[in-house]
Specification:
This protein has 161 residues and is α+β, with helices and mostly antiparallel strands. Helix content is 23%, strand content 30%.
């Protein structure tokens, strides 16, 4: 019967080190992150009240449910996180008719304001992206109607106001 080659001791030390590192990353990723958001600058004042700091649940990234408030980093130079409603997930269809937002053919319950466009032809939310909508857009507050679909890597997770 053939013998297996001997494994050097440094191999065992490396395997234990890599295992410990993977375990540490897993444990740290399960902790909730706290994000600071100024309610007056978020465009979500009716939904989140006057709160300024929220715990972010990163497990939302696996679920990707609609009609949830998420913290995200908007595109552009600002690295300051903000919050918005998720109105569409990858594969969902979006359309604007008569200044109302429709997702998968149904009127979006989180679109509490008239849309800036009268009509927009149906489009699909791209893979690994979401469409976000704030309650009251402003000069410093933008959502997917201004910057388009947001890549999921910019989403930190869901928040509970």
């Amino acid at each position: 019967m053939p013998r297996l080659p001997e494994v050097p001791s440094w191999f065992y030390l490396g395997a234990v080190t890599v295992g410990a590192a993977v375990g540490a990353v897993y444990m740290l990723s399960r902790e909730k992150v706290v994000v600071e958001v100024a309610a007056s600058e978020s465009g979500m004042r009716p939904a989140i009240g006057d709160g300024t700091s929220f715990k972010v649940d990163t497990s939302w990234l696996a679920k990707r449910t609609r009609n949830v408030i998420v913290a995200y980093v908007p595109p552009g130079k600002s690295a300051k996180p903000t919050v918005a409603w998720v109105v569409a997930r990858p594969g969902d269809s979006l359309e604007i008719r008569e200044r109302k937002l429709y997702v998968n053919g149904a009127k979006c319950p989180k679109a509490r304001r008239d849309m800036p466009l009268e009509e927009m032809p149906e489009l699909m939310c791209p893979r690994d992206c979401v469409y976000l909508l704030v309650d009251t857009p402003g000069r410093n507050v933008q959502d997917s109607l201004s910057f388009g679909p947001l890549p999921l890597w910019r989403v930190m997770g869901s928040i509970t106001p």
